[in-house]
Design a protein that fits this description.
The complex is a heterodimer of chains A (135) and B (797).
Chain A (H helix, E strand, L loop, with lengths): L5 H8 L3 H9 L17 H15 L4 H8 L14 E7 L2 E6 L4 H32 L1
Antiparallel strand pairs in A: 1-2
Chain B lengths: L4 H4 L16 E11 L2 E11 L6 E8 L5 E9 L2 E4 L1 E4 H13 L3 E7 L4 E9 L4 E10 L2 E3 L2 E6 L12 E6 L2 E5 L2 H4 L6 E3 L7 E9 L4 E5 L5 E7 L2 E6 L10 E7 L5 E6 L5 E7 L13 E7 L7 H16 L5 E7 L3 E3 L5 E2 L2 H12 L9 H12 L5 E6 L6 H11 L2 E7 L5 H11 L3 E4 L5 H11 L6 E8 L5 E2 L13 E7 L4 E10 L2 E10 L5 H18 L10 H21 L6 E7 L11 E4 L1 E3 L6 H5 L23 H10 L10 E3 L2 E3 L1 H17 L11 H17 L10 H13 L4 H16 L7 H6 L5 H17 L4
Parallel strand pairs in B: 1-15, 3-35, 14-36, 22-23, 22-26, 26-27, 27-28
Antiparallel strand pairs in B: 1-2, 2-9, 3-8, 4-5, 4-9, 6-34, 7-8, 7-34, 10-11, 11-19, 12-13, 13-14, 15-18, 16-19, 17-18, 20-21, 21-31, 23-24, 23-25, 29-32, 30-31, 32-33, 37-38
Helix pairs in contact in B: 4-5, 4-9, 4-14, 6-7, 7-8, 10-11, 15-16, 16-17, 17-19
Classes of the chains: A mainly alpha (135), B alpha+beta (797).
Chain lengths: 135, 797
């Protein structure tokens, strides 16, 4: 069983001390194992910090993470609506894209759709050419 | 139990809800001295805790332009301790060790984008502590005065990887990715700033030349002139809230050229030379190529985008035949009016206006992409970029680096009540351009046209500065290579001691090499120390703008970054100023400190800038950007808590409500009417054909319409040589001089032209006559007006 000081925990996880204190104050991390000079941190703190980093990488804010860690249950009733773009990339193909994704993600998606639309257009062109040739 | 303010009912409350607020930071007071070349400021932060246990308070603020922290003094009952300057790692360690021991520890650390975290640890229950922080910063110097800006709030800004959300109803939060921004903590943004810490200020202003006016478009101020060249400005109200920057506008009676000089504490000489732009000669009227880059990101929604569009239209109207232009609007996508530069024809200007009419504010601020598109348009052709933006982006160092690599001059017009002045000043300077900023309560067309007049036509190119007879002289930072009309050239330098000598300034104007000599004498003035610090702060922010974190690219980039960091460390040590590499720290041992107690960490909230809609950042489907960086599930529903839903209902339609009103002929004119007048002038300016005349069926009708338009501009206060519409006046005059008219009409036209030269005006409702369609009676009306004015002046034709 290893017990760490705040400085050691910070060094091992790469999360600065001030940030760890901030997380504790916001209820994202449990308080230290003992009060006063003997305060120390255990493996559960390490795991919790790693979990926070993972969720942050997914784009969750600290407030959202706090809610998730508190095990907030999914709410009853009608789910909230979410906006979607619909891109008719070809006459017979429609692609749905979530409109509230991050801008850089939307940009990636748009570029991919441009490619897709171009490819579908050439295919169609070739088909028509084949038809013309077949006449 | 101690009688706390809360118990007595004096605790601050949120105005809207009456809810009690627990403010860890109670007030912020700004004092200092503003000089033409920079300012020396002291900010007093008063912290008090009402918590039951020790707290750690984080106040996050943005630096003004060209600024650096010098030192702070932390004081409380029985102690007053000054900060030490240490490399960031050591400073953080000292802070953490002090905190661990239960001492009062204070750390001031600068992060990217000039954001500072002032962290005060182990503030005891009921204890009051003040931190006096010294800051050196720059000002926006004009030929006829200066503008000073100090951020009382920090604008929430865009970053593609930022995580954004509401922490509580009406309280927004932005978290920046740790791998790029380190452990910086941003403030919380309160939609309702009424219950936040109090702010106030008292500043002295020395402008060099005799002061004509000192005022503030942002705050109600009391101004006292101590003598012709010195004044003091203080907040007229007892207190104000942190929801906008402080802006001071200082105007002088005449352009000031002069030398500020003195000795620093180490006995070295320091000087700053200011040369106003008219000294370099006239501006050429050669055709230019300009690409307008318009920020239409969500943060611009409301008043700022309306201002920017108006500014853009006014500038389009000021283009002259031979000029070529491009027009780009960006959010997280880039859209161009045309893919290439176009001639300034009536058709293209109308097309551009139509394009502008379709622009509204929406997505994120991909500033770099917008600038890149503009640079591509100018590649091989050369020219200038005019950027209209609130500059509300994080990660500005990368944008500056990319803009510099493109090698195109960028001029910035900053818009908004908390625009990123520091960033826009740096972006313009590093690319060789100039910048101006406007606040929401100002006429946008004037500022835009002032800046636009200078774009693309420097009054001086290839500026060189040499010294003669100044032992040990060094010019640093490198002065601007070009000078634009309206903005003076500032030269900073140092010498070995109290010496005298000459600066030789050379430049090219209209293809001709010119030179002037400026005598510099270093006396024993104590100003030398301030000049040294202002110069140091400027050097540090220049180098800070060149750092990137983490270094992109290969080993070469990393080596370059290491060199920049080394340079910053040396600058910090030399000037005794904090930077990204060196932080300020103080640890105070108080009697009875208990080691090991973990303080509760809290973040000081600031107000949303008054013209930025809270929704545009923090609403569930914010127009700026979404909290969600990655869609976790291909199909799903965003989760929204009950408080969030309530918040959305409450804040959905908060709009910017301008407070100020203008009194006009005993009748109140609202801002909207004021705006209508701006629109009218811009419309008029836009109608001018490329040959300088107004449109019409034949020469006579065109001449008459042009005369009426000219009278409208004169009535508005513009003349051939001054006023925001001087270029339009000049073009109308040159058209009227050349158009063919009969003898009587020629006499009338010449009379009005003469009036324009002298800066006179004729009373009359010329706008209405013009709008009704000019009829031949208008000639008589103008002739009558001229006759009356002629009697008064005696000698009109």
């Amino acid at each position: 069983m290893t017990e760490l000081t705040l400085a050691e925990l910070a060094e091992q996880t790469g999360v600065p001390e001030r940030t760890i204190r901030y997380y504790i104050a916001r209820g994202l991390l449990p308080p230290p194992l003992r009060a006063g000079r003997a305060a120390c941190y255990g493996p559960e703190h390490r795991q919790a910090l790693e979990r926070i980093r993972r969720l942050q990488a997914k784009g969750l804010t600290l407030a959202e993470i706090a809610r998730r860690l508190a095990g907030e249950a999914p709410r009853d009733g009608l789910p909230k609506p979410s906006p979607w773009w619909s891109y008719p990339v070809a006459e017979d193909v429609v692609v749905w894209v979530r409109a509230d994704a991050a801008p850089w993600r939307l940009k990636q998606v748009r570029e991919a759709l441009l490619d897709l639309a171009a490819r579908l257009r050439t295919n169609q062109q070739e088909d028509e050419n084949d038809l013309d040739a077949g006449d | 139990m101690p009688a706390t303010e809360a118990a007595l009912g004096f605790a601050p409350r949120r105005a809207a809800t009456g809810e009690e607020l627990d403010l860890a930071m109670q007030s912020l007071w700004l004092a200092g001295r503003i000089l033409p070349v920079g300012a020396h400021l002291v900010v007093r932060h008063t912290f008090r805790s009402q918590e039951q246990k020790p707290v750690e308070v984080i106040y996050s603020f943005a630096l003004p332009r060209d600024a650096a922290l010098r030192r702070f003094r932390v004081s409380g009952e029985g102690f007053s301790v000054r900060s030490e300057l240490k490399p960031v790692g050591e400073a953080v360690r000292a802070y953490e060790e002090g905190l661990e021991e239960g001492h009062l520890a204070t750390l001031a650390r600068t992060y990217r984008d000039g954001i500072v975290n002032l962290t005060l640890g182990n503030l005891r229950p009921g204890e009051t502590v003040t931190v006096l922080l010294e800051i050196l910063c720059g000002v926006e110097l004009h030929d006829d005065g200066l503008r000073f800006r100090f951020p009382f709030t920090l604008a929430p800004s865009y970053h593609a990887r930022a995580r954004v959300g509401e922490a509580a109803p009406g309280v927004g939060e932005i978290e920046l990715p740790e791998d790029e921004f380190g452990d910086v903590i941003l403030p919380r943004w309160a939609a309702d700033a009424s219950g936040l810490h109090a702010i106030g200020f008292r500043l002295t202003v020395e402008a060099g030349a005799e002061l004509a006016s000192v005022g503030s478009p942002s705050h109600a101020v009391d101004v006292r002139l101590e003598n012709g060249r010195r004044g003091s400005v203080m907040l007229a109200r007892e207190r104000d809230v942190p929801n906008r920057d402080l802006v001071l506008d200082v105007r002088t009676r005449e352009a000031w050229s002069g030398v500020l000089a003195g000795l620093c504490r180490q006995g070295k000489g320091h000087f700053a030379v200011v040369i106003p732009s008219p000294r370099f000669g006239a501006r050429s009227e050669e055709p230019r190529s300009v690409v307008f880059v318009l920020d239409r990101s969500g943060s611009m929604s409301g008043a700022p985008i309306a201002q920017a569009l108006k500014a853009c239209e006014a500038c389009l109207a000021a283009l002259t035949p031979g000029d070529r232009f491009g027009l780009i609007a960006f959010d997280d996508q880039v859209e161009a009016f045309r893919s290439h530069l176009v001639e300034c024809s009536r058709e293209n200007r109308d097309g551009a206006r139509e394009f502008l009419a379709s622009v509204d504010a929406r997505g994120g601020t991909e500033l770099a992409a917008g600038l890149e598109a503009a640079a591509n348009m100018l590649r091989g052709v050369g020219g200038d970029i005019l950027l209209l933006t609130d500059g509300e982006v994080f990660g500005t160092e990368s944008i500056i680096a990319r803009a510099c690599a493109a090698g195109i001059r960028i001029h910035c017009l900053g818009i908004g009540s908390a625009s990123q002045d520091r960033f826009l000043a740096l972006l313009a300077r590093e690319t060789g351009g100039v910048s101006r900023f406007l606040t929401p309560r100002e006429r946008v067309d004037r500022g835009a046209l002032e800046l636009f007049a200078a774009v693309g036509r420097p009054v001086a190119r290839d500026v060189t500065v040499e010294t003669d007879g100044l032992p040990g002289a060094r010019i640093e930072p490198e002065p601007a290579r070009q000078v634009f009309s309206g903005t003076p050239l500032v030269i900073f330098g140092r010498t070995r001691g109290a010496v005298r000598g000459t600066l030789r300034v050379g430049w090219v104007n209209s293809g001709e090499r010119r030179a002037m000599e400026i005598p510099v004498e270093i006396g024993s003035d104590k100003l030398g120390e301030t000049l040294r610090l202002i110069r140091g702060a400027r050097l540090i922010s220049d180098w800070e703008s060149r750092t990137e974190e983490p270094p992109q690219g290969g080993a070469l980039d990393r080596r370059r970054q290491r060199r920049i960091q080394e340079r910053l460390r040396r600058l910090s040590e030399t000037y005794g100023l904090a930077s990204r590499e060196m932080a300020l720290v103080a640890v105070v041992e108080r009697p009875g400190d208990q080691p090991g107690e973990l303080p509760k960490t809290t973040v000081v909230p600031v107000g949303m800038p008054e013209d930025v809609e809270f929704d545009s950042y923090f609403e569930e489907q914010a127009i700026c950007f979404r909290a969600q960086a990655i869609c976790e599930r291909p199909i799903g529903f965003p989760s929204l808590s009950a408080e969030e839903a309530e918040f959305l209902r409450r804040f959905r339609s908060r709009a910017f409500q301008p407070e100020c009103r203008f009194i006009d002929t005993a009748r109140e004119v609202s801002l909207n009417e004021m705006e209508a007048r701006v629109v009218r002038r811009v419309e008029l300016a836009l109608a001018i054909e490329p040959d300088g005349g107004m449109p019409g069926a034949d020469d006579e009708e065109r001449a008459l319409a042009s005369l009426l338009a000219l009278l409208c501009f004169l009535a508005e206060g513009s003349t051939e040589s001054s006023g925001p519409y001087r270029f339009h006046v000049r073009r109308l005059v040159s058209f009227l001089e050349n158009v063919s008219l009969d003898e009587r009409q020629r006499r009338i036209a010449d009379g009005v032209i003469e009036l324009a030269r002298r800066g006179g005006r004729l009373p009359g409702n010329w706008w209405d006559l013009l709008k009704q369609g000019p009829s031949p009676e208008c000639w008589d009306r103008i002739a009558e007006g001229l006759a009356k004015e002629g009697e008064r002046l005696g000698d009109l034709p």
